[in-house]
Amino acid sequence: MPEHFPDTFRIPLPDDFHVHLRQDEPLRVYVHDLASSFGRAIVMPNTTPPIRNAADLRRYRDEIIDAAAGYPWFTPLMTFKIAESHSAGQVRQLAAAGAYAGKLYPQGATTNSEDGVPDIRAAWPVFEAMQDSDLVLCIHGEDPTSFVLDREDAFLPVLEEMVRDFPRLRIVLEHITTSRAVELIRSLPDTVAATITVHHLLLTLDDVVGGFLNPHVFCKPIMKRPEDRAALAEAALSASPKFFFGSDSAPHPVGAKENACGCAGVYTAPVAMPLLIDFFERHGSIAGLREFCCERGRRFYRLPESDYEVSYSRKPWTVPERYGVVVPFRAGSTVVWTGSRPEPVQGG
Ligand code: DOR
Ligand code: ZN
Known about the structure:
binds zinc ion, 17% strand, 4-stranded antiparallel β-sheet, globular, binds (4S)-2,6-dioxohexahydropyrimidine-4-carboxylic acid, 12 helices, 12 strands
């Protein structure tokens, strides 16, 4: 039986283990929207130009920290974009610069991945170096040469090979969308986990193309079938430590979405927590919400408990039509939960 939540409750400040913050001026807006709700975030490196080396990583982190000046609880956790040409020395330098993870983008799989890895096996030495430096490998797990609905499942055998060849490498299969991915992750050792987004928990392909085309929920990997969504929900609600929250919040200006060549990405940062609370109230418990958003990801990444807490109240608000030039997920609709300003944990 789902638990009816009290009208106000408190949990540790949630973390987001997969987000896109872009760069330059818009970054300020996106950092504000994210840091209003989250304490730590794994920041994706598919900027233009990409985050490839230690100098890029330091510069990008400084820009984010500068933009987050009003949010003392917020810490960006940096990543780099894997190239098969990365040397072991460069990987060590990235680790020394404070990288938490490297992100593998198969070439052509998604936004800004033209410079991704064309032949995954050619990057095996990079994974070896990452394992030696104890970096996490984050994967956009799609084979872009397959039919669009089959791309994630087509990637799974490659993941199995990686797990076999790098038994100490911690791997996160990002934004999973299929029941087969859920099943495989469950069956693999504890070094392997997966993030789940709020949009994949709530939508199916019908919401994207079943009626009128909705470009604002077009993303990669594309939403799948109702039974896939049900498997994701079960995984998020389960007691498994392997499934945790990563929003994949991915802002694109409205003109890049409402376009004949519309970009993939859903901007969920401003509404992710209210929607997750609603989801856990309908299907789970506060303890489950806390595990999914505050505990499992940080344990996998070996981070301490948050020093901050937030309280959520049943105070409905209408999602704005725009955040700057970006249309957010659920624009114009009413969401029920409002978060407080995060506060340091008492006695912490
Ligand atoms: O929909 C997506 N948008 N999926 C990704 O993997 C990348 C992201 C982006 O950067 O816009
Ligand atoms: Zn992403």
